[in-house]
Write a structure and sequence with these properties.
Elements (H helix, E strand, L loop, with lengths): L2 H5 L2 E2 L1 H8 L3 H10 L3 H4 L2 E2 L5 E4 H13 L2
């Protein structure tokens, strides 16, 4: 698997939270309310199921760090 394939892996909120070092509730809140939520790019599978691309999670974290 190359780096591009690795970045396109879909993560659960719990997995994304582990990467961001926050709770899964925080990730879900960011997906709805954060000013950079479009970068995070939540993917709704159904009304109760949400996933995130790993590349989007990493880009979101970089953008938030740059804003500090």
């Amino acid at each position: 698997m190359n780096d591009k394939d690795h970045d396109e892996v879909l993560l659960t909120p719990k997995e994304a939270a582990r990467i961001a070092k926050v709770s899964s509730k925080t990730i879900n809140d960011w997906a709805v309310h954060h000013k950079h939520r479009k970068v995070l790019g939540a993917i709704r599978i159904s009304a109760r199921v949400i996933r995130f691309r790993k590349s989007n999670v990493l880009a979101f974290l970089e953008k938030c760090e740059a804003a500090l």
